[in-house]
Every structure is written in structure tokens, then in C-alpha cells.
Amino acid sequence: MVDPNLIACIYPYDSLLYAVETINMRENQSRRIVCPETESQNLNMYGGYYALELRFNEAPGPSKGQGFVFGTNPDSDIVLPRSKCLKGVWSTRCAISFEDRDRLTLKDLGKGDGIAVVYPGRVENPELGILRDILPDSSASASAGASAGGKYPLVVMLHRDLKFYIMVSDHDVDSALHKGNVSRFCMAPL
Predict the structure, then answer these.
(1) Angle at the Cα of 153 (from 156 to 161), degrees rounded to 5?
(2) pTM of the complete model
(3) Longest Cα pair distance anywhere in the chain, in angstroms?
(4) Which of 2, 6, 36, 88 has the most Cβ atoms closer than 10 angstroms to its Cβ?
């Protein structure tokens, strides 16, 4: 059964040092979980067995109007490491939120070199500031297939040395419960 409060889980991509560091940072501790063994095997995870959860019942912080913000700012919802090697990773790098048609999206906040979302079987390189549906359209998801648990694995590249797997929870997006969760998420006070 799908957890109705779970939006997505974020896993380190392979053994990239900065992705693993992000998952293990003290600032992200409240969102950190131990990965189920089956998911870590499915993702070929080399960087550890921890993930970060994005949940409806644990709303984003001060930048709530933008969704879950990834950035080096300590007030970000997912705090990214600061390093000279990560040029283009700014205080507010990108955000995951619900946009048009209540679709979960990733938005480049326009401070960096762009972001790439890699779906199973295809690649997209969005330009700065463009929204991208995190869930692939029905034709792409049908051809790519879903992983165990009905989730869609994808890779988000914030920098060549900072990549994450994101597994989006498989909700019935037409259900009253999901629509209510999305509505509360989008309408919460800033």
C-alpha cells in the first residue's frame, strides 16, 4: 500500500561524494531514512543506504511558496554542500513542487547552468527557469516501465558531480485524498 503522505524519496546517485554528503548532512537529518534493501539494490546504489523523504505531512520550510527548495542556504529544505568544485550550485538551486494540473515538477530557479532530468530511456536538458514534470508522460512511462512498488526512477543532475535518483510515490492522482494533500501543500501560508 502506498503511503499517502510520501511524495518522493531522494537517493544518492552512484558513489558521487557530494550526493552522499547531501544525504548525510546534519541539516537534512529530519528527512533522512534508511533505504529498504530492495530499493537500494534496484538503484545499484554505491553511495550508501540512506535517502531523504519529501512528505506532505512535513511541509517545506521558509520558502514554502516555491515548494521543496534544494540549495546551499541553511534554510533550504534539502541543503546541498558548499564546495568550490560545485560551481553553479547556489543558495537556491531548484525546487520540487506541484504546478499546473497538480503535476509534481522540478523547477530550475535560474541560478546556475541548468538542470538535467534523465528519465528511463530518454534525456531532457531543460533551459534555465523551465518547469519539468517529474513524472514522465504516459507514453514514456509505459515504454520505460516502472520499478518495484510502482515508482518511476529518474536521475536529477544539479551539477556534473551532484546527481540524485528520485523515486516518486505512485499515488492515484485522481483520488480525493491526493487532491486534498496537493491543495493543502500549495495553499499553505508562506
Answers:
(1) 30
(2) 0.80
(3) 46
(4) 6
Query: Any idea which residue has 505531512 for its cell?
Result: 57
Distance CA 105, CA 99 (A): 7
**In the sheet that 131-133 helps form, which strands lie side by side, from edge to edge?**
78-79, 68-71, 94-98, 104-108, 131-133
pLDDT digit string, tens, across residues 44-76: 554 457 899 999 988 777 666 788 999 999 989
SS3 108: strand
Q: Domain range for residue 131?
A: 6-187
Residue position matching grid coordinates 536529477:
156
Residue 1 lies in a domain: no
Phi, psi (deg, nearest 5) at residue 51: -145, 170
Contact 75, 62 (CB under 8 A): yes
